[in-house]
Design goal:
- The chain is α+β, with helices and mostly antiparallel strands.
- It has a single domain (10-130, 165-179), classed as 3-Layer(aba) Sandwich (Kinesin).
- 25% of the residues lie in helices and 24% in strands.
- It has five helices and nine strands, in the order ααβββββαβββαβα.
- The strands form three sheets. Strands 1, 2, 5, 8 and 9 form a five-stranded antiparallel beta sheet that branches.
- The structure holds adenosine-5'-triphosphate (ATP) and magnesium ion.
- Magnesium ion binds at residues 10-11, 119, 170, 173.
Length: 190
């Protein structure tokens, strides 16, 4: 999670695409690069959601028409999910760069005295990774999942799946309003 004063390089460090120069890539791209190089499409599923929290409302950065997304917590497992948020399966690094670019274009930013492109929302990248323990079991994993969701027979033969979730957060800057010259409608609520 990147936290700190406005203009100190949070978005640069976390979200830079580095399209022309890989040494300019930020943490989000580097993390996905690493994950993609350690996964195989036949065995693993890598999916992302990209959201922003602005004025106490969660909006889908990949489908901006989805606003006020609720937060739900499974009472049994404690797992937190965001029903309705898009979850996109990442094909390769170029595909992920496209998704980040779409998200960045939809993100709230404002020109302030301290930062010409100051993030006014918190951005949350969620990466979901699933690995079937048997080889070449991704198709089976998907079909079994559908079956178990519909509560159909076949639950017992669900393959063993390892799940992992990575969250990367780029917070909106903290600053004194008088210094940044912000108006009230561009100040995010914390
Ligand atoms: N290490 C760096 N090298 C070159 N430029 C940088 C570096 N870090 C930040 N910058 C530049 O400084 C400016 C401010 O950085 P950035 O937008 O990442 O700040 P921020 O912490 O996200 O601010 P805010 O909280 O207002 O969103 C940007 O123009 C960015 O490109
Ligand atoms: Mg920022």
């Amino acid at each position: 999670m990147a936290y700190g004063q406005t203009g100190t390089g949070k978005t640069y460090t976390v979200g830079s695409l580095g399209k022309d120069d890989p040494s300019e890539r930020g943490i989000m791209v580097r993390a996905l690069e690493d994950i993609i190089s350690n996964t195989a499409p036949a065995n693993d599923i890598v999916e992302v959601s990209y959201l922003q929290l602005y004025m106490e409302s969660i909006q889908d950065l990949l489908a901006p028409e989805k606003t006020n997304i609720p937060i739900s917590e499974d009472p049994k497992t404690g797992e937190v999910s965001l029903p309705g948020a898009s979850v996109v399966r990442v094909k390769d690094l170029d595909h992920f760069l496209q998704l980040l670019q779409i998200g960045e274009a939809n993100r709230h930013a404002a020109n302030t005295k301290l930062n010409m492109e100051s993030s006014r929302s918190h951005a949350i990248l969620m990466v979901f990774i699933r690995r079937a323990v048997q080889e070449n079991a991704v198709d089976e994993m998907i079909s079994q999942e559908k079956a178990s969701r519909a509560d159909l027979p076949g639950r017992n033969s669900v393959p063993i799946v390892r799940r992992s979730k990575l969250l990367i957060v780029d917070l909106a800057g903290s600053e004194r309003i008088d210094k940044s010259g912000l108006s009230s409608d561009t100040v995010h609520l914390k």
